[in-house]
Amino acid sequence: MGLENYTCVTDFVLLGLTDLTMLQVTLFVFFLMFYIINLLGNFSIMVITIMDPNLHTPMYFFLWNLSCLDICCSSVTVPKMLIDFMTPEKTISFAGCILQIHFSHFLGSTEVILLTAMSYDRYVAIGNPLRYSIIMNSRVCRYVALSSWMAGYFHSLLHTLMTAKLPFCGPNLVKHFFCDIKPVIKLACTDTSLNLKLLTRVTGTITTSTLLLTLLSYIFISKYLLKIQTAEGRKRAFSTCSAHLTVVFLLYGTAIFTYSRPPTQDSLDEDRAAAVLFTVITPALNPIIYTLRNKDMKKSMKKFVKNLQFSLACKK
């Protein structure tokens, strides 16, 4: 039977995480709480890094970009998931599905590249502090950040175009809570081996290569840490790296787990659980990790809160 005899799919149904009503209500409250923490935490970091002149450094410039990515990445998937928890019809248009694929991979791949840039920034700051401001000047930082966003965009564009060109003839049930590539292309009524090869090889290469570069930076950083004479100096240097390293393992662990395996039924079920981590949990934890492990950020936040309280008191 030719493809022209099939009915073209105009929308998809997202099966979500569960079909149990009570569990959906519980998950709605749980994920809404994390989404609010994500928005408030990351937006606070973005505002504070702009308002406090002491934080106008490369490290906090990259952290501003990371916070922006966390907000955007969650906003691509979480609001739709929350709506689906509360409504019987969990449909998404074909165009909406393709847009979710594009922006989730665009923002996700940009983040892993940006984390690599942040590890290099830490390497220069610890390994070559006297020339740090020259090497990581504002022009270089803007170029690195822009390159990260552009690389993420074109990487995502490749998968988006390859997916959008596939014929979808039914069924239209996506076994996920958002349109991710693997569960969507599984519904295509044609051979998708090229799509899967591109996903595992291109996305896998970007993920593993950036992870290796990040780990390489930390290998060199560890050598410099051992040369620091004072315990206080080592503690301060390590505190600036530990938050970043924690975020790296959280994000890379789920990314490699999700996109380096072929899409079997069991792997798709496991991917849904992993996707909760990098779309809901990790973006909300990032601002907590960075504020708790960073003295400068905690100091700036306390100052910001005091100034806000003072301003409100004056208005009264």
Describe the structure in your own words.
- By secondary structure, the protein is mainly alpha-helical.
- The chain has ten helices and three strands, in the order βααβαααβααααα.
- The protein has one domain: Up-down Bundle (Rhopdopsin 7-helix transmembrane proteins), CATH 1.20.1070.10.
- Helices cover 77% and strands 3% of the residues.
- Helix 3 runs antiparallel to helix 5 and helix 3 runs antiparallel to helix 8.
- It is globular.
- The N terminus is likely disordered.
What does this entry show, briefly?
The protein is mostly helical and 316 residues long. It contains ten helices and three strands, in the order E-H-H-E-H-H-H-E-H-H-H-H-H.
Characteristic key phrases:
Rhopdopsin 7-helix transmembrane proteins; 316 residues; disordered N terminus; mainly alpha; three-stranded mixed sheet; 10 helices; 77% helix
What portion of residues belong to β-strands?
A: under 5%
Query: Per the principal axes of the C-alpha atoms, what is the gross shape?
Result: globular
Rg (C-alpha, Å): 22 Å
Continuous helix count: 10
Our count of domains comes out at 1
Determine the CATH superfamily: Rhodopsin 7-helix transmembrane proteins
Mean pLDDT over the residues? 84
Helix share bin: over 70%
Task: Give the CATH class.
Answer: Mainly Alpha
Structural class: mainly alpha
Order of helices and strands: EHHEHHHEHHHHH
How far is it from the N-terminal to the C-terminal residue, by CA?
75 Å
CATH architecture: Up-down Bundle
**Sheet having the most strands:** 3 strands, mixed
CATH topology: Rhopdopsin 7-helix transmembrane proteins
Spatial strand arrangement across the major sheet: 2-1-3
